[in-house]
Amino acid sequence: MIKRTPMVAGNWKMNGSRSLVESFSDTLNTHSFKEVDVVVCPPSGYLSFFVAETFDTGGQDLSAQDNGAHTGDMSGTMLTELGARYVIVGHSERRENHGESNELVADKALKALDNKLVPIICVGESLSIREQNKVNDFVGAQLAAVFDVLTTEQVSKCVIAYEPIWAIGTGKTASPEQAQEVHAFIRETLAGKEKSLAEKTRVLYGGSVKPDNAAQLFAQPDIDGGLIGGASLKTEDFIAICQAAI
Ligand SMILES: O=C(CO)COP(=O)(O)O
Fold first, then answer.
1. One GO BP annotation here (predicted)?
2. What ipTM did this prediction achieve?
3. What is the dihedral of CA 193, 194, 198, 200, to 10 degrees?
4. pTM for the complete prediction?
């Protein structure tokens, strides 16, 4: 049985400030996170202001292209040069607000790997999909698109994040049982490709994770940590969530 190191990643979305980056770095660096991998994903313009000693940084998106006439986009190489080790791909806000398809998300994951970045691939359903009892079909299709582009070996280098859209920023967390059910499905899907892939791959939960619900969620057998939005902007809350993952 392979032991997976838990992971907590903060997604600042389009929030924060230079002074928050500085105070965040100072406080986080006084903690040693030995048994949990801690990642902060700020808006990319802030990446180089981080002094990250006890944690890593990541981008929130990258282009599927290497360079060229793509105004406003950021390449994997650029993120790497700014010190990022991870990058979120396929967040539901990008899928919805920027029309990103399952196929484009898979291409972005591949581009991240090409640039030695660890992709955190987000999947998750809307409330209407859940109400139609189609969660597994929907999440299964999102994962299938990844397997169309990435080899099993490449998927083993990724992190998956299950983020039900109805739980993002709503204060409506999935219950530990609801989250575990989908995490188990994701792990079965990975096992369908290769047993060791399911054992190795970290699957995070995201959606209204707070210090008071994190421990219960992270205690589920198939939940390896969290992708945190709002609470990742409050240093003490974020640290408490990181500690709940150990
Ligand atoms: O979207 C999320 C992280 O990527 C979750 O956001 P909240 O934690 O604010 O619900």
1. glyceraldehyde-3-phosphate biosynthetic process
2. 0.99
3. -130
4. 0.98
